Structures
1.
Amino acid sequence: MANHKLDFRDKPINLNERGGRKWVYAKKPSGKWFTRRTIFSYFMLLFFAGAPFIRIKGNPLILLDVANQKFIIFGAIFWAQDTFILALLMLSFVLFIVLFTVTFGRLWCGWACPQTIFLEMVFRKIEYLIEGDYRARHKLDNSPWTTNKIFKKTLKHGIFILISIAMTNTFLMWFIGSDGWVELITSPVQENWSGFIVMLLVSAFFYWVYSFFREQICTMVCPYGRMQGVLLDSKTIMVTYDYRRGEPRGASGNGDCTDCKQCISVCPTGIDIRNGTQLECINCTACIDQCNKIMHVTGKAPGLIRYASEASITGGHTKIWNARNRAYSMVLLIIFSFFVYTLVTRPVIETTILRTPGLLYQDHEKAISNVYNIKIVNKTHNEMPLEIKLISHNGNIRMAGNKMTIKDQGMFESTFLLFIPKDEIKSDKTEVEFGIYSNNELIETYKTTFVGP
Ligand code: SF4
Ligand code: SF4
């Protein structure tokens, strides 16, 4: 590849020679790709804000209720006992991301990542509106504190703080649900100081990220960005500079690149795409639009910077499928099919029966009794009348009625005594089996031990 200088590799682009922050004043992007991204981002923003309010059979579309170990993902309910199924789902998701990245590069970063969407489509747009484009902002930042500057900075940061608070509250709804959130904000602050302080801290964090830290999340912090080196290959499609067409650059060369550096001025991470694939490139497409404008002015064909693979630029290889992404697809298909199978065939209730810790057995005249703790999780969307019976022995269960009704997605926890006649106890540890019935239909069995003399 024709690179003029390689010193861009010496240090992160947003640090100066002394290691201090070099602020990126990105030019306001515009063009075909930016319009497409803007429309897509509105759908994503709608999804972020609307997901906790969308209901499927009365349940939120997404709920990550960590406190109660209950997760709802697109209407499917997962409990702590479903860790295996959740792990399969996570594994499928990671594999999907890998497959997607191998084939289409950092499409996620440029189009769907919340960091990019909020920074480029919300915070940066407000900044452009209040402080102007890159030159005006640079001038404002380097000017003395006049009334105009104080007004603009106060207005901008005031709006940033309000948006950060709104983001935190939306984020909170993903974890406690919209009803839980309404309950939280309508109850007096003094009843929930810890929640209130967490909300303020998270808001302060968002405000700091989107006001000051900005693109450094992508270039220095995000682990996904760091993985690009091992995921991308020469056939991966990404935002690429066609150096065969562009070089030698500049007025004296005869390549299509005029060396106007407009692609750099518009880049939100401040890099030069002409240096080739760099982990700082979030594939935001801003340089495609900007370079196309220059090509239009110079009367050249658009697409000097475009979505393309290295292989397609060097040798015209345009096939998307190769051995690597075929292999990933196969593994993904197997794991995802297994996930769907385990999800569809999982029991509708999850029962745990354990002997109460620290208690042995009680000796009665004709029977021996053990104390058990029982926990039943209803994974269905229906209320379930349940009944517990001992099916392995001729025993007797004593619980406050041994009939129970569990609300949809509810949990039942209790303690009961199991009596087994002495003549049925053959050793000091006997395996017993319980049956859980609903409307006289056996729906689950559970084995545990019964201790005796
Ligand atoms: S915008 Fe296009 S023509 Fe201008 S420097 Fe970048 S690649 Fe070259
Ligand atoms: S190089 Fe182009 S696609 Fe990559 S981050 Fe910069 S402007 Fe966006």
2.
Amino acid sequence: MEELITIENVVKNDDKGNAILKGISAKVMDGELITIIGPSGSGKSTFLSLLNRMTDPDSGIIRFKGKNYLEMNVLELRRKIGMVFQVPTMLSGTVRENLLIGPKLFRQTLSEEEIDNLLEQVALPKTLKDQDARTLSGGQKQRVSLARTLANKPEILLLDEVTASLDPTSSLEIEGLVQVLHEQQRKTILWVTHNLKQAKRVGQYTWVIANGKIVEQGPTEEVFENPQHEITKEFIVTAFDQEGEIQ
Ligand SMILES: Nc1ncnc2c1ncn2[C@@H]1O[C@H](COP(=O)(O)OP(=O)(O)O)[C@@H](O)[C@H]1O
Ligand SMILES: [Mg+2]
């Protein structure tokens, strides 16, 4: 299995110089689905944004297939490593126009067949192509957002709380779509979620970020069944208390 992303002792500070991420080292192998959990404010979104080069580390190195991020073309990198956010932002125009945004940056377009194919991957009817994207429901917008990222044919998907704003049914539907992308297209996925049941259900591996560090990482089953770190134990136990038994 190929090593896709290598993170070497990455530090990220806020504008005032306070550490948000305090030295993170990790590896992402081709085809893995990693769920990332941890208390709110622990640095999860900051971590994902580094992997997509929305921001750069203050020190440390991030590599894609061995190549230092800083030596790569940013657009090319973002194309290979796509990100989807909690709140889908639709640009003005139709669903079709929203899907064409990514390819346009590379002076490319999508055929109607390719657009249909993208809609199929996110289980949206073709008839939505000509609809104003801003009139869609929250769940539909998140599907378009996912399809827009898939239009760039990314190798890696970074998902930041992508189901957090959705009702339970839409949330499970998006979850299912992502699992299909992982299983059928072998997409490598890093998925930040505060929904621990979801993290347990979908993850092969789970990383726990707390206080700007990865305090625990391992196969998802092990992390949930037998957490080693005090912070993980407390975090998971608290969630048990709040949500009842984790299934
Ligand atoms: N641009 C920024 N400037 C200053 N502080 C920030 C910035 N982005 C995030 N932070 C702070 O960094 C910490 C981690 O935030 P974040 O990565 O969003 O955590 P999480 O996604 O785990 O909830 C928080 O304390 C947050 O307030
Ligand atoms: Mg966050």
